[in-house]
Structure formats: structure tokens, C-alpha cells
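Sample entry as discussed:
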Amino acid sequence: MDTLIKTNKLCKTFSNGGQMQHVLKNIDLEIYEGDFTIIMGASGAGKSTLLYALSGMDKPTLGDIYFAGTEITKKNTDELASFRKENCGFVFQQVYLVDSMSVLDNVMAAGLLINKNRKEVAARAKEILKSVDIEENMWDKFPTQISGGEAQRVGIARALINDPRLVFADEPTGALNSKTGKDVLDTLTNFNNKGQSIVMVTHDITSARRGNRILYVKDGEIAGECILGKYVHGDEDRHRKLNDFLVSMGW
């Protein structure tokens, strides 16, 4: 598999009340094209900080990040914004849809950042909304008129409209019940099966099972890695392998 992201001695340090807090420590890591990579770890381990650094949303204190062979750590704020717009999609625990805009317009707004042809963007938005099971009778609704699971699937459509090289997801099922969370995971899995690269932070073992590669972060370092292969529903060996790995990591 081709390497999509490569890091070299990645560090992130914060000052907390005059004390230096080392959140990421000399991380050497590769993320591969087409993978569904899961980042797990205890609260405060540094997993979300790692996600934001990899995506260019946060600058590391030290170290280098290469995205498809291009170093992004030396880019300025405007260059990073352009990089994210052209290469990345984002799905968060809170969807952050604009309440005053319809479902369709929320997705189109992201598409228009790249393509100014409104007709083409509208066609793509409708296509991607259908692919996440948001049908035409919902396109004119506002975010307050749809369920949390539906809103998260709209968020996924928004993340995918510009065909990003990589989708970053930070606890996308954290605010959802088990049924709607499964729908969101099914949506992400379906896109990964079509070749979409995904990096997802989660603390939930049910969500983690969807990944083919699990990275466990402990005290700002990659403490271990588990390769599961492509997700197959009902695979008990997969379930046991992940459980055993997490136990070995002190989960």
C-alpha cells in the first residue's frame, strides 16, 4: 500500500500553569492509502492531538509531517487551510451544521469552496447525500428538523463532497445511541470498502472493530499496533483479537 502520511519524531508540548506538558513524544508513524486506521487510548493519552496534527489543524512543536510526499509542517496558516480544503474531510462528534441552512445547502457550502459551478456542486451534493441514505424528501429540511444520526450522515456527506484523499473522524458516534451509531459506522465502512482512506479516533470498542489497523496511544506515544484486516460483520476471531490487544495495552 502507498504511504499517505508519514511523520518523523512528531512532538507536541503545551504549557499548563507554567508546567510543560508533553502530549506527543517523538512519534514515527505511517498512514496508508485505503486503510481504515483507528486511534485508541485512554482519555488524555494524546489521540485527538495526534489527529489534529496529522490533518494540519494543529502545528506540532517539533518534527515533520509529510502528506503524499509533501511536507505540511512548514506551510503557513493560509497554505494549511488550502491543503485541508483540497485533501481532507472532517467528521466530528458534534456535527456543526449551520442551522439556518438546509441539509442540501450545508453540503453544497463545502463543495463550493472548491468548485464555483453551483450546478455541478448541487448534482454532486445530491449524489453524495443519497449515498449516505439521506433521501430527497430531507434535502430541504433544516438541521433542527432531523435526528442526530441523520445529521451525522449529512456531516459525512459534507466531508466527502470534495473527494478528499483522507477523512479524519473524531469520535463520530460519541453522541449517538447504539442504533444510529451503527448506521454512521456502516456509512463510513461502506466508503472505506470503496477505497476511501479514513483515520478515526474512538474510545469505543464497537467502533474500533470497523478499522483494519488499530493504533494504541499511551502517554503521547504509539504503544502498540493491531492489524485486523477488512471488517466482516460477525467475525468473532476479529473481536477476540482486538479484545486481547486492548487488554495487553492496559485498556
